[in-house]
């Protein structure tokens, strides 16, 4: 109010000063203005006087208000102190009420325990736990500590009592199952009574879960990246694990002979055995009780989780101690991978829960793992089996690290193959050369299949986001192709392997064709223009000059069919057929002139001998010898049709550029004869090769 009064006073003063200045200016020129201006000046003077009067009243009112506020502040300060004292008293009252509530609950629990009213005691402890959680946000540290200690005291007494009774009932059911349960283990005589006790105790223990978690300060166990959180183990399962945990620590800690760093399979196998031995009991006895109690947990999975903590703790202790022994470390990794496989497969352990592999992803252990895999890549089937060793890893970054290693190893293997291939290239038909070609083809096929594999497609998406940190710079184009799934993670490797495979296959075809061409020289130089007519021969037989070529082809095909894998051999014989087709067409047919007997002999050699050689590998081998097949069609035409075809081709050549709808095109005429590959100009050349008898 004081500040407001001061501000109003300042504003009013400014306005009055402005009016006074205006009046003085007007007075200076009053002598030269009319009477009405004088009247206006008089009115202005009256206004000035009134304003000064109002200003004085405002000053008085402001001073009065200021004095009033100063007096009220004293009362306000006093009221504030009283309210503060009331708030303190209220907090003290609540504090005492809370203490009284704690004492009341404590007395109730004691009374319930003395009268063996277990359900009432469980309810009282649950209410005390709720009170504990309600005080978390308060600053009463001493009260919180007192309440927590009181809760811990009564919780331990009640838990020990229930746990003792629960263990006695479990003993009646022969728990724990150290060895596989057999039919000789007869159920207790009063099994119905024990079933009722079992259900009652499990339900009561489940009701203690909240207080148990508070006392133990259990937080949800952080799981692997991208997976759901795993809650604490339920209290009944914790108690069931106690005898198994004691046995595990007895055998696999300290100076026991069973605690052997070189034998991780002993404790890993023991955990799996206990899981298997207990599965039926958990499914048939414990799970129905949990369901009726409203606990949304899987009894068998809960037991597996508990047993896994034993293996995880042991593995976390042993793994760093093996970092300087490659052999033992490799053995540990092999056993852990096998354990994880059986855990997820045989025991159907959910993949949303962590197993033991994440222990191997600790930085120093993981780097050691990568190092030994790089050193011992020869143990794997050309680095392909490495996939099975990292497919189950819970972290995409770790998987990408292994992928980078695998690509590096595969590329090293490709380089070794290339080096050995160059040494063997002088003998491309040797088994060693073919083995190298098979290996290159196998890796190429596997990498190509992996490009469409769901696992690698998911890894491809991970590579787009975090891959550059592990795989190196990808580039904008490659990143875009990977993100759109157009490319694959193995494109560069596949291109190199395809080049190696193509080069080796080409060398192999060159070697076979050199041998075939050498054996075919006498056949190509036969006197095709002077062979006897088919009518002059009793029976047709293979040309004697063609026998070496046919035998050479047969031997190479049989030999390479044994040495090459099926896909490679398919590619090989088709490539060989294509080259052979061009060779016979260009070096034999176009090189010679044919009489009727020569044409008949050529057709017989091709259709009854050459084509059937390839008939073992396909149903219509003649389709792979289109030049030769169509050349035989042209050469074996009767004289009349051959002359008509020759005239039509010549006429078509002369009328080239002139549109004639009535005259059929040369291509359509050739198609009617079954000629599709050869061009009209090629057919003219072939017709000229038989010109000697066309003139007859």
From TrEMBL:
<comment type="similarity">
    <text>Belongs to the RINT1 family.</text>
</comment>
<dbReference type="GO" id="GO:0070939">
    <property type="term" value="C:Dsl1/NZR complex"/>
</dbReference>
<dbReference type="GO" id="GO:0006890">
    <property type="term" value="P:retrograde vesicle-mediated transport, Golgi to endoplasmic reticulum"/>
</dbReference>
<protein>
    <recommendedName>
        <fullName>RAD50-interacting protein 1</fullName>
    </recommendedName>
</protein>
<dbReference type="Pfam" id="PF04437">
    <property type="entry name" value="RINT1_TIP1"/>
</dbReference>
<dbReference type="InterPro" id="IPR007528">
    <property type="entry name" value="RINT1_Tip20"/>
</dbReference>
<dbReference type="GO" id="GO:0006888">
    <property type="term" value="P:endoplasmic reticulum to Golgi vesicle-mediated transport"/>
</dbReference>
<dbReference type="InterPro" id="IPR042044">
    <property type="entry name" value="EXOC6PINT-1/Sec15/Tip20_C_dom2"/>
</dbReference>
<dbReference type="GO" id="GO:0060628">
    <property type="term" value="P:regulation of ER to Golgi vesicle-mediated transport"/>
</dbReference>
């Amino acid at each position: 109010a004081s500040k407001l009064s001061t501000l109003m006073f300042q504003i009013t003063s400014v306005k009055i000063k402005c009016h006074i200045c205006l009046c003085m200016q007007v007075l200076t020129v009053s002598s030269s203005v009319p009477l009405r201006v004088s009247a206006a000046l008089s009115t202005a003077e009256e206004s000035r006087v009134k304003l000064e009067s109002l200003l004085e009243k405002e000053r008085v009112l402001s001073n009065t208000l200021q004095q009033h506020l100063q007096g009220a502040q004293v009362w306000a300060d006093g009221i504030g102190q009283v309210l503060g004292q009331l708030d303190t008293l209220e907090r003290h009252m609540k504090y005492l009420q809370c203490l009284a509530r704690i004492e009341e609950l404590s007395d109730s629990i004691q009374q319930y325990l003395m009268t063996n009213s277990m359900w009432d005691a469980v309810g009282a402890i649950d209410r005390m736990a709720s009170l504990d959680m309600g005080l978390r946000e308060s600053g009463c540290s001493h009260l919180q500590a007192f309440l927590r200690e009181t809760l811990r005291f009564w919780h331990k007494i009640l838990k020990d009592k229930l746990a003792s009774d629960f263990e006695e009932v479990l003993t009646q059911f022969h728990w724990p199952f150290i060895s596989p349960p057999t039919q000789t283990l007869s159920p207790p005589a009063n099994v119905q009574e024990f079933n009722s006790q079992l259900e009652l105790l499990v339900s009561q223990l489940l009701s203690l879960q909240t207080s148990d978690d508070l006392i133990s300060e259990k937080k949800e166990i952080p799981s692997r990246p991208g997976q759901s959180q795993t809650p604490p183990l339920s209290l009944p399962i914790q108690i069931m694990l106690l005898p198994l945990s004691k046995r595990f620590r007895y055998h696999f800690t300290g100076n026991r002979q069973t605690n052997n760093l070189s034998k991780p399979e002993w404790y890993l196998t023991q955990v799996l055995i206990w899981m298997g031995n207990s599965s039926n009991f958990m499914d048939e006895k414990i799970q129905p009780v949990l369901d009726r109690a409203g606990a949304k947990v899987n009894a068998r999975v809960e037991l597996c989780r508990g047993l896994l903590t034993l293996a995880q703790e042991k593995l976390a202790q042993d793994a760093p101690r093996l970092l300087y022994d490659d052999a033992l470390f490799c053995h540990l990794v092999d056993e852990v991978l096998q354990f994880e496989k059986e855990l997820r497969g045989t025991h159907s352990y959910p993949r949303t829960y962590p197993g033991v592999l994440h222990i191997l992803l600790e930085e120093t252990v993981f780097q050691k793992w990568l190092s030994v895999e790089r050193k011992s890549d020869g143990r794997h089937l050309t680095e392909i089996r490495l996939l099975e060793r990292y497919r189950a890893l819970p972290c995409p970054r770790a998987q990408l690290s292994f992928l980078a290693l695998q690509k590096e190893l595969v590329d090293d293997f490709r380089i070794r193959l290339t080096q050995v291939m160059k040494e063997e290239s002088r003998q491309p038909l040797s088994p060693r050369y073919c083995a190298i070609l098979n290996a290159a083809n196998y890796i190429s096929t596997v990498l190509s299949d992996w490009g469409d594999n769901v696992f690698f497609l998911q890894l491809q998406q991970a590579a787009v986001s975090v891959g550059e940190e592990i795989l190196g710079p990808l580039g904008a184009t490659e990143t875009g192709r990977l993100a759109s799934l157009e490319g694959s993670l193995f494109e560069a490797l596949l291109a190199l392997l395809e080049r190696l495979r193509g080069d080796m296959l080409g060398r192999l075809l060159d070697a076979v064709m050199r041998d075939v061409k050498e054996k075919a020289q006498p056949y190509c130089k036969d006197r095709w223009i002077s062979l006897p007519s088919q009518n002059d021969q009793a029976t047709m037989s293979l040309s004697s000059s063609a026998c070496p070529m046919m035998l050479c082809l047969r031997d190479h095909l049989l030999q390479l069919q044994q040495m090459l894998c099926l896909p490679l051999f398919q590619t090989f014989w088709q490539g060989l057929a294509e080259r052979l087709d061009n060779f016979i067409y260009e070096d034999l047919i176009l090189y010679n002139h044919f009489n009727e007997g020569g044409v008949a002999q050529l057709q017989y050699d091709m259709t009854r001998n050459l084509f059937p050689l390839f008939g073992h590998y396909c149903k219509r081998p003649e389709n792979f010898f289109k030049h030769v097949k169509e050349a035989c069609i042209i050469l074996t035409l009767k004289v009349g049709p051959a002359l008509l075809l020759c005239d039509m081709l010549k006429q078509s050549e002369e009328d080239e550029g002139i549109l004639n709808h009535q005259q059929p095109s040369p291509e359509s005429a050739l198609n009617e004869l079954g000629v599709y590959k050869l061009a009209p100009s090629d057919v003219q050349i072939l017709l000229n090769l038989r010109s000697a008898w066309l003139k007859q």
